[in-house]
C-alpha cells in the first residue's frame, strides 16, 4: 500500500509504531504547502493520505487520485480537507477527535492564568530590574484569581469538556454554549450551565473558544460579538485562528473594551510578523499572550494520534470501516 504523507517526515518517523502496517507500506513524504501537481507526481497512485491538520487536501487533488481510500487528519481539525469531494467517491475522511483534549485544555488554562497573573509583563519586569515597581503597582490595580472568574466555553466538544473539569478544580464558575443544549446529566458531570451565546458573552470574565471551523463559525468572533463581551473581559483561543476576525479583535483591545487575549492560534499559518495581532502584541506588551499553536502537540498527543492513524490504515487495508469518520462515508 502506498501512502502519501503531507507533513514532517521526522515527526512521523519518531512516532511510527515499531511493528505493524506502518512498516509494510511505501511511504512518500512531502511538506505542507506542496502544490497538488507535485503531490500527484510523487504519489498520485497512493491509497491513503495522512495530512498535517493545517495541510490542504482539496477536490482537485482528491479527484486525480484513483486509488484513494482514506484521508486522515493528523489532528482533530479537518476543515482543510474537502470532505464532500471525498464522500462523493466513498473515500473515508477521519480525524483524531479527542486525542488532544487534555493537552489543549491545559493550554487554555495556562493562557487564562498567564493573563490574570500578568505572566509576560512580570517576566519582563524582573529581567529589567523593575520587580518591586510592578509588584507594588499590581497590588493596587488588583490581581484576579481564576476561582473568582466566570468562564464561558464556546463549543462543548471533548476539549471544552476537559477544560471545564480543570476549571472546576480551580473553583471557577463555568458556562457553555453549543448549538444544542446538553442533557442535565452531562451538565452536572462537567459542572457547567448552558447560556445562549449573547448571554454567555455578556456574563463571562473569560471567553474560551472551542468550536470547530465551519462556514457558520468562521470569524464568529467579529466586531459585533466581541462588542457583546463583558467590558474588561479576556478572550482565549486554543481552537483555530479562523474563528476570530483578527482586525476586530485588535480594535476591541485598542479601545479598551477587552482587557486582553490569550491566543494559541492565529490565521494564516505560518504566522508572520505583519499579522495584526502580532503587531499589536509587540506595540502593547502584556495585552496579548501568544503561544505558537502548541496546545495539542505534546508527546502524549502524538503517540495517541499516530497510533489511531495507523490502526485506521490497517482497518482500511483489511476492508473494514475506520473509526472517527467525519464525512459520513459508511
Task: Write out key terms for the chains shown.
single chain; 330 residues; alpha/beta; five-stranded parallel sheet; 15% strand
Describe this structure in words.
With 330 residues, the chain is of the alpha/beta class. The chain has 14 helices and twelve strands. It has helices at 9-15, 36-43, 59-63, 83-87, 101-116, 119-127, 131-141, 158-170, 184-190, 197-203, 223-228, 246-254, 276-283, 299-317; strands at 2-6, 26-30, 48-51, 70-73, 92-94, 150-154, 173-177, 193-194, 206-209, 233-237, 258-263, 288-290. The chain has a seven-stranded parallel β-sheet, with helices on both faces. Strands 2-1-3-4-5 form a five-stranded parallel β-sheet, with helices on both faces. The radius of gyration is 21 Å and the shape is globular. The mean pLDDT is 97.
Helix and strand arrangement:
Blueprint: E1 2-6, H1 9-15, E2 26-30, H2 36-43, E3 48-51, H3 59-63, E4 70-73, H4 83-87, E5 92-94, H5 101-116, H6 119-127, H7 131-141, E6 150-154, H8 158-170, E7 173-177, H9 184-190, E8 193-194, H10 197-203, E9 206-209, H11 223-228, E10 233-237, H12 246-254, E11 258-263, H13 276-283, E12 288-290, H14 299-317
Parallel strand pairs: 1-2, 1-3, 3-4, 4-5, 6-7, 6-9, 7-8, 9-10, 10-11, 11-12
